[in-house]
Amino acid sequence: MTTLLATRVMPADVDSAAEAARILAAGGLVAFPTETVYGLGADATNGQAVARLYDAKGRPAFNPLIAHVLDLQAAKKLGRFDADAERLAAAFWPGPLTLVLHRAAGCPVAELATAGLDTIAVRVPSHLVARNILKAFGKPVVAPSANRSGHVSPTTAAHVLADLGGRIDLIVDGGATPVGIESTIVACLGAPALLRPGGLPRAAIEQALQQKLSDAPAAGGGDDDAPIAPGLLAAHYAPRTRLRLAIRRVEPGEALLAFGPVPAANAQAAKTALNLSARGDLIEAAANLFSHLRALDGAGAPAIAVMPVPADGLGEAINDRLARAAAGDR
Ligand code: TXA
Ligand code: MG
Fold first, then answer.
1. Nearest atom in ligand 1 to 123's CA
2. pLDDT tens digits, residue range 172-231?
3. Torsion (CA) 96, 101, 105, 109 in degrees, nearest 10
4. Of 147, 175, 157, whose CA–CA distance to 8 is shortest?
5. Which of 104, 124, 112, 129 is nearest to 61 (CA)?
6. How far is CA 47 from the centre of its chain?
7. Ligand 1 site residues, Cβ closer than 6 angstroms
8. What residue segments make up the domains of the chain, in order of their start?
9. Would you say residue 61 has pLDDT above 80?
10. CATH class of segment(s) 8-233
11. What DSSP character marks residue 145?
């Protein structure tokens, strides 16, 4: 259950940038304007902060998030740029363009923020308020549009307050956002593909690249919070090892993905075990989900036995991802 917070609203100035950075560093949630729409920001490197962000948006789904950074140099620590990506960054950053790239080696962004994928969405915003916050914080900030899941993206601080008041720590009010629709998303993972039309027109991108963009059919019927193009990109993380869900008894030699207290017999039977949250905290469990699955997938066990996870709060999204991983659904 999301606990009720006292959401503060501050006008955008030097003080609010410093206060935003302080809250982000403490794992809190800050909404701020970008040139496209208001984003709900969290420290991209802090898995628990990212889990809290999904929780605040409601109907949690662990869709991969966009990492926001100040410049190309910072972006290159997160994703690998091919020649097309270099060209697009040079032409349109800072601005309303998001690039989906292969994750760079040593990328510090939490696995939960990229939903366990090997790709990452990166954007360099041009809005001064967003840039001042990124400058003050000094680390990448993940920011989905600052609306409840299923609602439209907010273009004023009042929209954000109406949707997320009581669920986030701070709203920095920088007036109405100039572009008003989300960034255009282009995947540079091979032939460049348009994943989401947005604030930067396709024609401008094709002009800069001197080639046509291929189209990735968007999944989810226009819901901007739905994962994009599951056929084209791996939309869900899937381990190679078979998963057994909601187990009561661990078979000898299995890897164990635990939640809460582990019965002694199961601890003994397991070849290796990791606990999503020994104290049964769903926020902590979400933060650990993809990294624990990955680690256990590498343990060489015949199967990963997964203890039951309750379905309330973030548990709904955790169970959804576990079910997809068990079904080998990509
Ligand atoms: O203008 C914007 O892009 C705003 C501002 C706040 O920056 N942000 C925004 O974020 O619209 P969000 O989370 O509402 O939409 C991001 C979209 C989602 O549809 C997500 O599935 C997709 O980007 N996405 C993120 N990472 C991806 C990846 N690695 N591969 C494919 N799609 C990805
Ligand atoms: Mg959105």
1. 7
2. 999 999 988 999 999 999 999 999 989 998 999 999 999 999 987 544 334 445 445 433
3. 50
4. 157
5. 112
6. 10
7. 34, 36-37, 39, 63-66, 98, 100, 114, 117, 119-121, 123, 143-145, 182-183, 185, 195, 224-225, 227-228, 233
8. 8-233, 242-326
9. no
10. alpha beta
11. B
List the end-to-end C-alpha distance of the chain, in Å, as a whole number: 29
For residue 120, which atom of ligand 1 is closest to its CA? 29
pTM exceeds 0.85, yes or no: yes
Q: Are 107 and 74 in contact (CB under 8 A)?
A: no
Cα 99 to ligand 1 centroid, rounded to whole Å: 10
- At residue 322's C-alpha, the angle toward residues 292 and 316, to 5°, is 110
Query: Rounded to an integer, what distance in angstroms lies between the CA atom of residue 171 and that of residue 10?
Result: 6
Distance 127 CA to ligand 1 centre (A): 17
Task: Give, for ligand 1, the residue of 59, 145, 147, 160 to mutate: max count of ligand atoms closer than 8 Å to Cβ.
Answer: 145
CATH architecture of 242-326: 3-Layer(aba) Sandwich (3.40)
**Helix 202-209 vs helix 83-92: angle between axes, to the nearest 10 degrees?**
120
Hey, what are 196's tokens? 């989401």
Task: Kindly report the protein residue whose alpha carbon is nearest to atom 13 of ligand 1.
Answer: 144
Ligand 2 center to residue 284 CA distance, Å? 24
57: CA distance to ligand 2 center in Å? 10
Statement: residue 84 has pLDDT above 60: yes
Distance in Å, CA 181 to ligand 2 centroid: 10
266: left (phi over 0), alpha (psi -120 to 50) or beta: alpha
Helix ranges (H only) for the chain are: 14-25, 47-57, 72-75, 83-92, 128-137, 157-164, 202-209, 264-269, 282-297, 315-327
If one residue of 29, 65, 117, 223 were mutated to test the ligand 1 pocket, choosing by the most ligand atoms within 8 A of its CB, it would be: 65
DSSP H or E segment with residue 305 = strand 303-306
CA of 37 to the centre of ligand 2 (A): 9
